[in-house]
């Protein structure tokens, strides 16, 4: 069945099949870029999943790419304060994914850059189609978003390799670094979800939630504080503009 949310932005499509909730990003004309409305829609969908005893949430993207990341369109009309609030809400979303009382699964294809890669890193399991590619450039404009979570997923040395160079890396390197759980063709995703659903529902709900809590250190406050410090430094918009100019 399709679930409907209060937001009328139509930036996501949400369907549920028993214990599984599937969220599809539906801004293909904008490379599924994460604007404010899309972030709020995702937060709302995760809140609904928590209230309705969902056991597994899968996130994928419509069109040729998973997501181009943070939506920088309309930057001229945004202040440092506007941008800071957007990053704080984005961190709220990433924490909602990472600390959810259910399994979260990223199903990636095509480009997965910036904040979208942080979204993927926040998931319990992370699968990508063979030609997918990733990049995490946030520290290039001094925004500390998801840095600790990435290090927990891939280890300190791999995180340094990913973040220091801010280079694009493909699925095979992502597997070697530990960023991805596996490589899976898009036609195989339904079978993969069925397999993970069987595994994810093998424990009673209370035991399952306890397992999740005990296998992920809780750094929510520290991560939010670190992000806040990084975006509180004057010139956030200017730093972003300089970064965008350097890659165009």
Describe the structure.
The chain is 46% helix and 16% strand. With 248 residues, it is an alpha/beta fold. Mean pLDDT is 93; it is low at 1-8. The chain has 10 helices and 10 strands. The strands form 2 sheets. It has a 7-stranded mixed sheet with strand order 1-2-3-4-5-7-10, with helices on both faces. It has a 3-stranded mixed sheet with strand order 6-8-9. α2 (80-98) packs antiparallel against α9 (220-232). It has one domain (2-200): 2-enoyl-CoA Hydratase, Chain A, domain 1. β2 (12-17) and β3 (20-25) form a beta hairpin.
Strand content: 15-25%
Query: What's the shape?
Result: globular
Tell me the Rg in angstroms.
Answer: 17 Å
Mean pLDDT: 93
What is the CATH T-level topology?
2-enoyl-CoA Hydratase, Chain A, domain 1
| Percentage of residues assigned to helices | 40-55%
Structural class: alpha/beta
Report low-confidence residues grouped into runs of 5 or more: 1-8
Largest sheet: 7 strands, mixed
CATH architecture: Alpha-Beta Complex
Strand arrangement, largest sheet? 1-2-3-4-5-7-10
Instruction: Please report the first level of CATH classification, the CATH class.
Output: Alpha Beta
Give the total of beta strands: 10
**Tally of domains:** 1
The name of the CATH superfamily reads 2-enoyl-CoA Hydratase, Chain A, domain 1
What is the number of helices? 10
Distance between the termini: 42 Å
Question: H/E element string?
Answer: EEEHEHEEHEEHHEHEHHHH
């Amino acid at each position: 069945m399709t679930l409907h949310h209060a937001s009328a932005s139509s930036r996501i499509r949400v369907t549920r099949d028993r214990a599984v909730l599937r969220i599809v990003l539906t801004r293909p004309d904008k490379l599924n870029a994460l604007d404010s409305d899309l972030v709020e829609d995702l937060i709302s969908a995760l809140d609904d999943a928590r209230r309705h005893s969902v056991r597994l949430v899968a996130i994928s993207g419509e069109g040729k790419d998973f997501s181009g990341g943070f939506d920088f369109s309309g930057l001229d009309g945004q202040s440092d304060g506007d941008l800071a609030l957007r990053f704080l809400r984005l961190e709220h979303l990433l924490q909602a994914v990472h600390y959810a009382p259910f399994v979260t699964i990223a199903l990636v294809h095509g480009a997965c850059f910036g904040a979208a890669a942080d979204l993927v890193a926040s998931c319990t399991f992370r699968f990508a189609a063979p030609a997918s590619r990733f990049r995490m450039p946030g520290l290039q404009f001094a925004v500390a978003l998801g840095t600790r979570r990435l290090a927990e997923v891939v280890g300190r040395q791999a995180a340094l390799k990913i973040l220091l160079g801010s280079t694009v890396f493909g699925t095979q390197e992502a597997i070697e670094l530990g960023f991805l759980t596996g490589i899976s063709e898009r036609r195989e995703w339904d079978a993969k979800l069925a397999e993970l659903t069987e595994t994810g529902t093998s424990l009673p709900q209370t035991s399952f939630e306890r397992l999740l809590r005990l296998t992920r250190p809780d750094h929510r406050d520290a991560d939010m504080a670190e992000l806040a410090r990084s975006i509180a430094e004057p010139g956030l918009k200017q730093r972003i503009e300089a970064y965008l100019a350097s890659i165009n």
